[in-house]
Amino acid sequence: MLIPSRNRGGLSRRRFVTGLSAGGLVAALPRPLLARTPTAGQIPPVARPRWDLRVGRTRIEIDRKVLHAPCIGGDVPGPILRWRQGDTVSINVTNTLADEETSIHWHGLRLPAAMDGVPGLSFAGIAPGKTFTYRFPITQSGTYWYHSHSGMQEAQGLYGAIVIDPPAPDPQPCARDYVILLSEWSDVSPMDMLDNLKMQDDYYVFRQRTLASLPREARAAGGTLAALKDRLAWSRMRMAATDIADVTGVIYTYLLNGHAPDMNWNAIFTPGERVRLRFINGASMTFFDIRIPGLEMLVVAADGNAVEPVPVDEFRIGVAETYDVIVQPTQARAYTIFAQSEDRTGYARGTLAPQPGMSGPIPPMDPRPVRTMVDMGMGDMKPGESMHGMAMPGHRHGSAMAGMDMADHKTQPPMSGMPMPRHEEGAMDDMDMKDMQPAPTALGGHGHGHSLPMPAAHLHKPGTMDHDAPAADMAPVLEVDDPGPPPLNVENQNIARMPTDRLASPGDGLEHNGRRVLSYSQLRATRPGTDPRPPTREIIMHLTGNMERYIWGFNGRKFSESGPIRLRRNERVRFTLINDTMMEHPIHLHGLWSELENGQGAYRPYKHTLISQPGSKLSYLVTADAPGLWAYHCHLMLHMETGMFRTVIVE
């Protein structure tokens, strides 16, 4: 069976739907039906409470990169699901993959824990040839998305958008409404990416600082000696100031609604109309900086929740975030939707135009960001000063802490009833299993990636792909509310000596660029939060990692060495994130809202994913009003896979 292929030649080439697996063939069967649905980015005209989705593999070629992609209905991204608040939806997901399980997680939705779609935690996963019915009430409205939580299928194409209509008329009505789903495309498997990063942490970073760039750095730093000292400081940390993204445009093609940049996805408008653009970052590893040259954007929603309108020229969208913006083009010309990767190694683009096929000018990409010691939470530290908690070559757990005030290492007793952490083989010492299993099959899943550790030795466990044995002095540690600064060891390379409040910063590379750029401090909810209670306790999570070993975690430990975070039902808690790494981390708590403390008082914005900037400290409030087991992790897929994952139990 032949169907058109999206690639450099538009529809001039064709792609084969292969019969390599039952999934590849079955996925093609609904194609005539899908051809009658709206094209990519166009929202279905009517909300539907019932959906039938088939997951299979299809051979797809985009930008000369060929992949047998796990996807829904033979297309990447999958169909836009449109629901209505107040309905109860039913989604039958059939797995036609030949030999691997699958799952769907409904990102940002409030629903029963058993419907959350995390194999080994929420349910057992969907085995090949089986159908699982997700059924849950819709209690919210806005822009969300769905993706697989099995085997890193999300990184290869198993994702799509969700649009939920409010029960009342929209206070920001628009004549047109489009989804803009940003993602990546590569013919390199996520497992191969991970192996390469394990071998060399800057494997995909081809734009390093060189002798040729030294004069420019010297002018910015106030002299050659200062620039050389800065380079020496980074060398001592065994990090690169230009290592902005672990995986880059070297192997990625950046997509907008499944279209490569030269395919020129179009959205139509009539001059004078208000147009809503629902931006979703469905990438696995890439942050995007978005602007539409010549148009002001009015940010009206963040992560599905309405905010007071903020006029901007540009905004950064982290992995898994969503933003709704409204534009009002007045001229009958083409406008380019330009989404450059944070590291400036590529971009996705589309066009807003009064007629199909038009193309607007593509702006040049901005200069690449370069991290500083301030970005690393080291203040204005000079290389000759005491480095306190900074990792130095050859230093390990104890000696690297020289110069730090050891009184800062708080050793609180564990909370009552706190279970022991999970071990490498998935054992759960001193843990009451009935507290951990929402259903008898909760630990019965198969496959790998995005799943809890399983007892069987052959199953992949998040946080243990690194093949590195824990340090000899790293005994299993209970999760406590305030663990103090993490140790420097094989799993943690750095400690932010002076973490800063970066809520008013739009992000590295966006400051002082001459444009109005959105920052977290500008987000203000349109109505007060539903829970006015102050928090009764604070849970501090250090975001930690070792770039050389490519291990990531919380509080200096990966998932396999840590226990769950326990919350009492309806408890009000404050989570504080301290980023000890040089990377942004999009932190996602399943099943519960995260109320960002950004200076807006009772009008804190509700978010499901929060971006922690390098060397920063931020906090948010959580009301534990949904019982069950919930995933808590960094949404950079390779970070989650190598340890930056926890289980939150609301009991």
Automatic annotation (TrEMBL):
Metal-binding as UniProt keyword: yes
Organism domain of life: Bacteria
Keywords from the named record: Copper, Metal-binding, Oxidoreductase
Residue ranges occupied by any Plastocyanin-like domain in the UniProt entry: 57-168, 244-352, 533-651
Location of the region described as Disordered in the Swiss-Prot/TrEMBL record: 346-367
SUPFAM superfamilies, sorted: Cupredoxins
Pfam family, one: Cu-oxidase
InterPro entries per UniProt: Cu-oxidase-like_N (IPR011707), Cu-oxidase_2nd (IPR001117), Cu-oxidase_C (IPR011706), Cu-oxidase_fam (IPR045087), Cu-R_CopA (IPR006376), Cu_oxidase_CS (IPR033138), Cu_oxidase_Cu_BS (IPR002355), Cupredoxin (IPR008972)
Transmembrane regions listed in the UniProt entry: none
PANTHER family attached to this UniProt entry: FI03373P-RELATED, MULTI-COPPER OXIDASE
Name of the molecule in the record: Copper resistance system multicopper oxidase
Organism of this sequence: Komagataeibacter melomenusus
